[in-house]
Amino acid sequence: MKGLNLLCCCVASLLLLSTAEEVEDASEPTKRDRSHLESTLKLNEDKPADDVSGVLQRLRKIYHSSIKPLEHSYRYNELRQHEITAYPGRTLGSSATDGEITSKPMVLFLGPWSVGKSSMINYLLGLDDTPYQLYTGAEPTTSEFTVIMHGPKLKTIEGIVMAADSARSFSPLEKFGQNFLEKLIGIEVPHKLLERVTFVDTPGIIENRKQQERGYPFNDVCQWFIDRADLIFVVFDPTKLDVGLELEMLFRQLKGRESQIRIILNKADSLATQELMRVYGALFWSLAPLINVTEPPRVYVSSFWPHEYHPDTHKDLFLKEEISLLEDLNQVIENRMENKIAFIRQHAIRVRIHALLVDRYLQTYKDKMTFFSDGELVFRDIVEDPDKFFIFKSILAKTNVSKFDLPNREAYKDFFGINPITSFKLLSQQCSYMGGCFLEKIEKAITRELPDLLGSIGLGKKPNVLSCDVTGCGETPKNRYKKP
């Protein structure tokens, strides 16, 4: 009898152990194959990265010798303090550092809380179940701006260290205060994809939270990252499609950057087909008033995490959508130098227009001043109604400037409120015997040097770095006021 009881106990134990193993196996979801991700992003290729050091050195030389002098002389950074009203869209910092010029493409993740932004980064980098993975959860988990970049080993960098390092492109973030720097963190990860791109994870948008409760200017910080991002992923999930004040402000800040925006409807395999169609329509209905452009941004519908798609869902569709997004990301990485040169040229055009406008304001002021005039009243009249003195129209007529490139007139009221008009010199006086004229140099950079540098990349040529060092990138200084 005792032997029979012992046998029954053994059998029961074996059954319980087998059941526990089956439950444990069932509780661990199957992971998807990553071969499409690695092939699309070219993570398995052993070929060395393109040598762009010569191009970057030439680009730095052009910026510092031809663009920065005019930018500094006419205090373009002061105009940029009113960047939303002056120039919507991407821009350099107040004074571009070499770190900003040579930085890798930046991919920015925005969206409501717990929609899968951190999980998507973990999936793209294959960090799940590793010591490197970003923390995720159903509750708001990311309270910091997290910069994921390449490094020889896993390393966490505090925000105050990132801002103090001039070699990085994050030193301008000090202007947002110490409270923000405590919410900024950098993570270096030895991953091949991060050799070519940098990811930025942001705190989720919580509509019932006032901005002042964060302790730092959240919208201003977002604007800083938006202005420097090469690709912006705005992530939603089927449960968070409502648009509140904070999300509405975010899309207002994205105005002018529509070509970089990609909308992602994440966790799509959690819905049946009919429900997914309704959610897709509801997403467009919510975003339509916020994106006032003819062609809407591209929308990707999939589930960006490592686990298998739920059964009875459109697996093939989700996989194709994911591959399309990866190709989009890879295209930004492949075109990083072309985009950077084009961006620097766009920045140079804006600096030139700003200098021409300040010069015109100053010339008008000098023309209207008499011995008995009150300088303050004269200039106030000019600033309040620049059209009365044909300030902007004269720029359009004489300098080959498009009216669509002109900044907002209101921005100059604030600009001259900080910078007295008498503190500037006319463009005709910004010349030297050895250095040439500021205006001629920036025009040469816009019309010749930067297009030639861009063309050398397209033809696979390497710029001549030595001649750049010797001659100043092929420039022979000229002075139109020097007598022959």
Automatic annotation (TrEMBL):
It is a peripheral membrane protein. PROSITE patterns: G_DYNAMIN_2. One of its GO terms (cellular component) is sarcoplasmic reticulum membrane. SUPFAM superfamilies: P-loop containing nucleoside triphosphate hydrolases (SSF52540). GO terms for molecular function: GTP binding. CDD domains: EHD. Keywords: Glycoprotein, Membrane, Sarcoplasmic reticulum, Signal. Residues 1-20 form the signal peptide. Residues 23-44 are annotated as: Disordered. Residues 101-342 form the Dynamin-type G domain. Residues 28-44 have a biased composition (Basic and acidic residues). PANTHER family: SARCALUMENIN (PTHR43681:SF1), TRANSMEMBRANE GTPASE FZO (PTHR43681). This is Sarcalumenin. It comes from Calidris pygmaea (Spoon-billed sandpiper).
